Amino acid sequence: MSFVPFRPPRRILMGPGPSDVPPRVLEAMARPTIGHLDPAFIGLMEEIKGLLQYAFRTGNPMTLPVSAPGSAGMECCFANLVEPGDKVVVCRNGVFGGRMVENVVRMGGEAVVVDDPWGRAVDPDKLRETLRRHPDAKVVAFVHAETSTGALSDAQTLCAVAREFGCLTLVDTVTSLGGVPVEVDAWGIDAVYAGTQKCLSCAPGLAPVSFSERALEKVRGRSRPVQSWFLDLSLVMGYWGSGTRRAYHHTAPINALYGLHEALLILREEGLERAWARHRRHHRALRAGLEAMGLAFVVPEAERLPQLNTVRIPEGVDDAAVRRRLLEAFDLEIGAGLGELAGRVWRIGLMGHGCNRHNVLYCLAALEAVLSEAGAPIERGAALPAAMAAYAGDGEAP
Amino acid sequence: MSFVPFRPPRRILMGPGPSDVPPRVLEAMARPTIGHLDPAFIGLMEEIKGLLQYAFRTGNPMTLPVSAPGSAGMECCFANLVEPGDKVVVCRNGVFGGRMVENVVRMGGEAVVVDDPWGRAVDPDKLRETLRRHPDAKVVAFVHAETSTGALSDAQTLCAVAREFGCLTLVDTVTSLGGVPVEVDAWGIDAVYAGTQKCLSCAPGLAPVSFSERALEKVRGRSRPVQSWFLDLSLVMGYWGSGTRRAYHHTAPINALYGLHEALLILREEGLERAWARHRRHHRALRAGLEAMGLAFVVPEAERLPQLNTVRIPEGVDDAAVRRRLLEAFDLEIGAGLGELAGRVWRIGLMGHGCNRHNVLYCLAALEAVLSEAGAPIERGAALPAAMAAYAGDGEAP
Questions:
Q1: What CATH fold (topology level) applies to the domain B22-268?
Q2: Testing the interface with B: which of A251, A265, A327 to mutate, by most B Cβ within 10 A?
Q3: Which homologous superfamily is B272-393 in?
Q4: pLDDT over 80 at A253, yes or no
Q5: Residue A57 scores a pLDDT above 80
Q6: Measured between alpha carbons, how far apart are the two ends of chain B, in Å?
Q7: Which residue of A has its CA nearest to B73?
Q8: CB distance A144 to A91 below 8 Å
Q9: Which tens digits make up the pLDDT trace of B147-164?
């Protein structure tokens, strides 16, 4: 084995995440490490909490980044909110809903699963029907933006239904945060987790979470301790504390947090509403191009995530070969299908910093070239004009 | 709240960790993010596994960094090796042994605690005596280098004792790895975890772990799944895989892993034996200076960690005021006491990249100045000559 410094190839990341990380964020992560109990670092922690409240649209004091990837954020929510024997209704319309079920089981809870087709939003009526049959359910969990399919569910309505039945809500916003509206307070979400490597355009490795007062009451009223020491909210809370008081718990990933702070600053400078509009705009152009090429979307238009475009692989085309060619010849990464969609779809991300006109046009051009080379039955020469027309038609400056 | 990019102050980190991160590692973390399924990244993962085998002195194929801080590495070891009802003997001689007990309890195991005084090594005879009384114990857990006290235990002997009684061994090497010998294979350690922010001189946030074949047999023979989905070794294993096959589990913290790779390269370039010798050498000089000043070590010489020097705070000296003055006037961070040593000791780290002559001399000069200013009963003007004499006497080039 030869050991030399690693020089990553320069990719354009248009898969389901990580997305392209802007130079400002990369540069921030390279700043000198300081101690995690340094007053300067404690000031940074306070700012990160404030910036995450902005991103989540919440006043929850208990809003902070868990020191581990999104999957650990999911586990943090379930570990704290679910006690052995608790009944949890999980809406499942893709891989990540399935992972929620797995989490409930590992916490000793009882999962009641509401299944919806992959590629569709969660159906609020089915949820209501299920809650009628399970009046003892304590928590409703669902994925706002299913990363495995590109479907966006109506979180506001789902939370309202859960509230009708007195349930807490636990929501995955890993792929939605920063790309489409996430209104933690207005929708009454009780526990929410996200990732940093999607529309926040930060490196992977942290999981922003937020908990409502109702959720914290449930945590405080637990009859036995959370089964994870690392993810125990009462301890994490003491570490992230309020003001300058801190109880040592673990050592925070200092440099990763420099990056998150910078990424959240960028989001705040642009403004959430403008970021959402930007995602919609470039999605429209990408969609126009993909459809002009003859590629079909998996998710119906009204339930589609602008930041994650899932299209069917044309008949007879070799999935892996196309993705390899895009990576090798164009340095372009798009995502494969996951779970039951593996081999059948591609997932094209337009997330955060990577959601821009250059990426839309480059992706369409590269995809057309590679699919043509592979002899796929696509319309040639139509994608870029369609995308450019979409941009021209929206009346905004390029 | 004002939101501007965060510019950390330039500190010299001589506490219990994080330690100073060298520019090469900081620069590596700022390289462009690529996808976690990119062939180039999979190559990097393979190299990191190989470099960690080098650092741990092991051939264990199951050697990888958990995507979270050292505390999660601890939890990963306990979550996988301990099933509800399992009896685990924990040797406790400081805060981190206490945290091990907490982990056993949360896993539903039964902890049998062998207590030793804080500031002393774990006593192998007490362990043997305890194992005689508990022939049904399945695991022996102990901290190799107690970060809360600076005591180094004889891991080789403790592992041999555990083996006499057919127990698996679970060892915390968070502060020892890279600073003093850690011989996973030669000592027969079955599960081991470390941190990146101590003698590896990397940013915090990752936890290198390694598992022996005996440990994996125990994991494979579990009667129920690991209670943590995120830390389930059978899933983590699939992700870190062998060769180019990978099963998606979570998204690895790409940029943090760039940093770890570079930090491990630096360690390998120097060589473990030379790194250990360097830690001993600078410890001798620091010790000579601290003792000449009149400061007393907490840990007896034979049980002392070179990389973490714990000294008693002189009578009548205000702990927090001295540390604050060192930080504000000298940009120097030293560590406070933890647990039952809080307010009674300082912990001075000489870890990895930060273990060098400049730091030894600067720390002695700063400490003497601040303690003099505070009116502490110390010997003035003696520390630097004593340290310089120690360097001169060891016959090595400066």
A1: Aspartate Aminotransferase; domain 2 (3.40.640)
A2: A251
A3: Aspartate Aminotransferase, domain 1 (3.90.1150.10)
A4: yes
A5: yes
A6: 48
A7: A230
A8: no
A9: 999 999 999 999 999 999
